């Protein structure tokens, strides 16, 4: 899938467990686990907003596009 979910990375950076995030944003631990693994087909903007508020980050810190036509990252050398 070309959309990569980096929620586990942000949790690690904030030294927060999934259980705490789930409690603070009003989701079950299982739903947070599904989000972390990328096994969801979508996410509500309201949920994304709550995650970003709690983790003090931007949506782009959590979601990344890695498709065929994705723009080159600044830290990668040009092909």
UniProtKB/TrEMBL annotation:
<dbReference type="InterPro" id="IPR010982">
    <property type="entry name" value="Lambda_DNA-bd_dom_sf"/>
</dbReference>
<dbReference type="Pfam" id="PF13443">
    <property type="entry name" value="HTH_26"/>
</dbReference>
<dbReference type="InterPro" id="IPR001387">
    <property type="entry name" value="Cro/C1-type_HTH"/>
</dbReference>
<protein>
    <recommendedName>
        <fullName>HTH cro/C1-type domain-containing protein</fullName>
    </recommendedName>
</protein>
<feature type="domain" description="HTH cro/C1-type">
    <location>
        <begin position="13"/>
        <end position="62"/>
    </location>
</feature>
